[in-house]
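Q: What structure does this chain adopt?
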Amino acid sequence: MSYSVSPIGFVRSCFKEKFAIPRQPQLAPAARGVLELVAPFDQGDAVQGLEQVSHVWLLFLFHQALEDKPRLKVRPPRLGGNKAMGVFATRATHRPNGIGQSVVKLDKVESDRLFISGIDLLDGTPILDIKPYVPYADIIAGASNSIASAAPHLIEVQWTDAALHQAHAHARRLGEPLVELIEQCLAQDPRPAYQTPAPEREYGAQLWDLDVRWHYPVPDRIRVLEVIPAAD
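A:
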């Protein structure tokens, strides 16, 4: 038996590409976006009462990772990308039905859109459902997961003077906590765990309408090199 679902909205996110997106929600509080609802959910009735809620669960589609043939095993980045595990033991993006879930902070409610932060969602992500976070039910005392028992280890993020100046200027233009966003995302070290890059190798990611470039002067440290407008 098969079922069909339709998005109730789409996320407009600070993350314009998959690289450097935090691997779980809430790891980058400065990551913000807007969930734009579509008809018939954009008239206000569907979100009535949601202003009393601080966080929501979002069920969504990994729309850039949909596959015709389901994977039974995946290689989670958390384990370095070189160890296979059963798909149901992980939160890898390659899901049998492409469905993901994230708990995000609800900053503001309008009739046709929700302002959210602490997100780990790519721009354009289709949202399938919204559910209020219920602390007494959703926090389970004594819960454990030995695969992911703690948040990722953070590495030091440094800046060139020019890059920091650029980031502050663009933060004022965007009205966004851009410096914090860059530091929170890069401190989680977005490179594949099996890579040990040479200092001259540069990495990059697009946040909002900007290209952020960085390198690793030593393996456990990032230096941001420039923050410039993204190419059209």
